[in-house]
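# nightly structure sweep
# worker-07 picked up a monomer target from the shared queue
# config: single-sequence mode, recycle default, output format = structure tokens
# input follows
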Amino acid sequence: MTESLARFSAENRWWVLGAWVVLLAVSIAIMSTLLASALTTQFVFTNTPEAQRGVDLIEEMRGLPISTNEVVIVRSETMTIDDPAFEQAVTDLTSRLQALGPDIIRLETLVDYPHTGLPFLLAEGRQTTIIPFTMAGDFDDATSNIADVVEVVETAKPPAGIEVLITGQATVGKDFLEVGQEGIEKGETFGVPIALIILALVFGTLVAAMLPVILAFASIFVALGAAALIGQVFALSFFVTNIIFMIGLAVGIDYSLFIVARYREERARGLEKIDAIARAGGTASRTVLFSGITVVIALFGMLLVPFNIFIGLGIGAILVVLASVLSALTLLPAILSILGNGIDRIRIPLVGRGVADVENGGGFWDSVSHGVMRQPIISILLAGGLLVAAAYPMVDLAIGFAGVSSMPDGIPAKEGFLVLDEEFSAGNVTPAQIVFEGNLDTPEFQGELRSLVAFLESDSRTAFGPEQPLQTNDAMTIGLLSVPVVGDSAEPLAVNAIDRLRNDYIPRIFTSGVVDVHVTGETAYNADFFTESKSSVWIVFPFVLGMSFILLMLVFRSIIVPIKAILLNLLSVGATYGILVLAFQKGWGANLGVLTQFDIIEAWIPLFLFSILFGLSMDYHVFLMSRIRERYDQTGDNADSVAFGIRTTGRLITGAGLIMVAVFWAFAAVDIVGLQQMGFGLGVAILIDATIVRIVLVPAAMKLLGDSNWYLPPFLNWLPDLRVEAEPVDPAPATFDD
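# output follows
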């Protein structure tokens, strides 16, 4: 199928190129108009844990969607609220916020001290006051409209000595989006040039080097257009753009790299242009197809986690992998047909053409493979021992959430948050929301409510601030008690406070059965996410491992190959987790001045890395094993086949791996801890996989196993033969006038 598709694309090159130009134009148009509305900074469950049930009840009680809480802070080191200039600055700011109208702010929630005299709006010392309010609409409306509010704050012109700040959920989300966009720009600025340099060294010509990068960007734009459409139905996490760029540059370049290399190899062996494209289509393109399927299967595991950030990241990564496969199977053959021998134009001085001598031994990679296979046991002990040692720090892995306090210094929302937490409580923005469901008009409930308030006020760790008045619906069947929680909603103090509330205070107090009690709010969401993540491991891991085993067994007609691949990949993932702990939790990265030290690994990182890394690792495994299996089917010599596979793919896999590492580490330069951990972790894992695993452990293990590598139990012989590589063909003399 892939051979026929490659030949069709090559023979109808201008039609295929025209179709892709139209597809790109449509994708860019959709991306430009719809992508912004497709993204969200809100974290949402797709099932109904306790925190989500609480949110649903609050929305039912109010008849309005949950939105974001924002706080404008006005402070002075020389004046108090009793000074006319200070008071006037506050009232002027309130008036300007009111002027934004009910489509931006829920005006009934907008209050200030001069108009109300409410004591909780004024800090001790009377030099700092807050203007709290709730944004209109839902969370996404708030995200879209917060820029108007921030503009009011930034353009305020209070008298000298008065400072105005703003923080809140939508404000923080806005700053996260801006910093994330900076990460994409850094990834493009540093990752793409490094990728071009590596490709130039691999291919030896500038035209061949540029081609994979061009196809990668084509795939990225198509994926972004598709994500913009999907986001109109299911809002995607704002991280989706980062993941599309990262994975798109990585796999888009890789897939094209392997096909271009095989095409040039077939040309060097004597095939004519169209025949060489078809041959590459029947071999390397089939490898790309099944490799893409393997990656998608691994990524599909992320869709099984009932949380929008995982689903969004999974959708984005799957879209760009599919787009990369499509471009490699159709657009690339058309461009190769147009270029012909022009693929080798603009030679790089002092660098060869990068076409391996596949039939004859010799060279660096041949020496490496034979060296490893001469001492396979020692090779496995040394390389495997190194990875086990790297994995050991994983025992100290601590997961959590990086809150506002982990953002870079100088970010406006963080500056406002720190002032709010110092003078009041940041929990005013993200309070614990205790929701009561049942008959609230009973003496039993009233007594239990008083007891709860007393417990909160006497909390041994003083983690709770003064509660707000109880809100209820008209039927007195739903109630809401909002209680500020001290500190950052992601920090242990807040998380432990919610744990005491849920598992100690509420069960001890609410024993009458008159009401059901649900604790929600940002910290409760975090706690429920931890629980859901742990539960999802038992679904995602077996799914990814099982599906990967089945696909590799079908592709290579062996049960040993998939077992070995899974064990090596798990070892690689474990080593990556351990290095993450050293780099972030232990501060090794901060000591080198390149990463931010943080006490936890973001809760979504381990499961995310497992799915992504398993897919990308299988990528290289399919590429390498395809060439080994091709040679084994031809010669029946296991050791020669392993050496053949290493020397024909070693330069490519190492180059592709270095490109991925460069891209991922370039994105890790962003100042958001979660994105740093994601980019750094992906880069480390690929570096381990493309070097220690593929160059040392795979050939050593295959040497020890011998012909048993290809063992398939007789009772499975009925399975379809999906071996990636087609049977070798006799090359025809090439004509070099095309």
